[in-house]
Amino acid sequence: MGNSFLISPSLFCSFLLLSSVSVDGVNSSSPFADLYHSSRALLEEVGQLVGRHRDRFTLETMRAQNKGYAAEIAVITYNRLNKLMNGDSKFRILLSFGQHGRELITSELALHLLSVLSGELGMPDLNTVSMDNVLDNVVIKIVPMENQNGRKRVEDGDACERRNGRGVDLNRNWSVDWGKKEKDYDPYEENPGIAPFSEPEAQIMRNITKLFDPHIWVTVHSGMEALFMPYDHRNGTPDGYTSKTMKSVLADLNHKHFRDRCVVGSGGGTVGYFAHGTTTDYMYDVAKVPVAFTFEIYGNSSAPATDCFRMFNPADSATFKKVISEWCTAFLTLFETAPSHLKADLGKWVSIRGNVVDGGESRAGRRKVLDGIELGMQELKTYFRLFILSSVLLMFMFCSRISRSKLIHTGSSNLS
Ligand SMILES: [Zn+2]
């Protein structure tokens, strides 16, 4: 940013909020029309912001399709030009918002965060520990609206829709423990799709991850206030070398920004149910992202179960601004603290791309092959399960056909 960060992150975000203006709303009949952008308006605003700050932002639109269903995802890369460092030597952070259609507030947070990163609002009083230094050392990729098709369904009137444009939950379509169903499984909420990565949105996100090879991943949701780390599919946190780092980063954020009121820990261990095939479990287990989080930024448990707008999104201006402000500053803290916490761990990191930060080439190459095999094995296991299931079904059909023809045969011999 041309002008430095001259104030504390908190003031910066608050100022931005005071001066932010909602454009057109979700739809004219929505109670949120005054507070929230439509998806079209939000993405247009993001595009314009990028256009005004080409020294630090680039925008790509990634597309994929599968069996007649197409999806596209806008990805914004924040990378300030810096003569001393090239992009590869910076910390890489991947953030995704709006994976679930009904969680409108998350994409609003993405837009605000991008506005802060753009530096459009210069501030007077100097804070010398500059966010400038922090932001010089990171490359941030931001997906402001992962599930554009699902979001459109919400805007068309289905306020409780969280799945994509053809009814698949994008946070159940990944390959770690894919397809397992709990007793209270509800296809309206959690349909995992016909196979891991059947959905174009998940394919695009996986590709971004492979190409970008992030050190830090955060997927942003709403429904409660929580700071989650792996695992979602079982009770407990991983034993890996970054487990301690993840725990301490989350505890710091919770204390500093949320007065310790967020639920913190593994998704599966704290939320009350296991989630299978989630993005964060894949990011940690398969993509080997050292720090992988799920943030839940807002929830209203007293809203009626049929009122999804209010369950997942602030309904008044004061709460809306408070949520955006708190989480915006929490992200700036994350950009500052997580890389410094992680530095000590990265000697042991072997990324999915095979770049060993502190190690030999050959080890990197070997590990890369192993990662590939592991990735393939996860998916093979799932396909094998499907194969066994369909074989059993075929056998059953075959046997019942034989017994039926025997009966007919016996019947006809009795007649003769
Ligand atoms: Zn969600």
UniProtKB/TrEMBL annotation:
Q: Where is the active site?
A: 296
Q: Give residue ranges for domain Peptidase M14.
A: 35-335
Q: Which organism is it from?
A: Iris pallida
A GO term, aspect molecular function: zinc ion binding
The organism's superkingdom is given as Eukaryota
State the needed cofactors, names only: Zn(2+)
Q: Where is the signal peptide?
A: 1-28
Q: What is this protein called?
A: Carboxypeptidase B2
The record, for Pfam families, names: Peptidase_M14 (PF00246)
| Keywords, alphabetical | Carboxypeptidase, Hydrolase, Membrane, Protease, Signal, Transmembrane, Transmembrane helix
Any one of the GO BP annotations:
proteolysis
Mind telling me which residue stretches traverse the membrane in this protein? 382-399
Q: Would you identify the family this protein belongs to, as annotated? A: Belongs to the peptidase M14 family.
Q: Which GO terms describe its cellular component?
A: extracellular space
